TrEMBL record:
Biological role: The phosphoenolpyruvate-dependent sugar phosphotransferase system (sugar PTS), a major carbohydrate active transport system, catalyzes the phosphorylation of incoming sugar substrates concomitantly with their translocation across the cell membrane. The enzyme II UlaABC PTS system is involved in ascorbate transport.
Native organism taxonomy: Bacteria, Bacillati, Actinomycetota, Actinomycetes, Micrococcales
Record protein name field: Ascorbate-specific PTS system EIIA component
Chief location: cytoplasm
Keyword presence, Cytoplasm: yes
Compartment annotation: Cytoplasm
Length: 149
């Protein structure tokens, strides 16, 4: 399953966040702006970390903010937020985080497919540095869809 297209208003660059909760709220707000989810989904993404810890920090510098599918998800989608200053999420090996990808999906099957798709993107060791360096939405989309940047 290909990753969904990420609209310009679901991408934010060089944002300041005081802590990991605020970083997740930035990614969640981008999902809300693009019509993917509601504010309640953002709060559930924060609740996942409160309950299960910082397992969403899936690679050095990268957090994949997500929660289970639910009524607060309108359609499958992604958001991308680069942080002005890296933020500690509490992960023993992969902190601090400089890029937060928000993920929302309408079904468990789609959720698994989207997580796998994101994992494939970041199997490329150049993907995270390219996202950190991106200054346009087109550059972000090129990284997510495996194009040369």
């Amino acid at each position: 399953m290909p990753l969904p297209e990420v609209p310009d208003h679901a991408i934010e660059f060089n944002r300041a966040a005081a802590d990991w909760r605020e970083a997740i709220r930035l990614a969640g707000a981008a999902l809300v702006r693009s019509g993917v989810a509601t504010d309640a989904y953002t709060e559930r993404m924060i609740g996942v970390v409160d309950e299960f810890g910082a397992y969403i920090v899936v690679a050095p510098g990268l957090a994949l903010a997500h929660a289970r599918p639910g009524r607060d998800v309108r359609r499958d989608g992604l958001s991308v937020v680069t942080l002005a200053e890296p933020i500690a999420f509490g992960h023993a090996h992969n902190d601090p985080v400089s890029v937060v990808v928000g993920l929302a999906s309408v079904s468990p099957d789609t959720h698994v497919s989207l997580v796998a798709g994101i994992a494939n993107v970041f199997n490329d060791p150049g993907a995270l540095p390219a996202l950190r360096a991106a200054t346009t939405a087109d550059e972000v989309r090129a990284v997510l869809h495996g194009a040369e940047v």
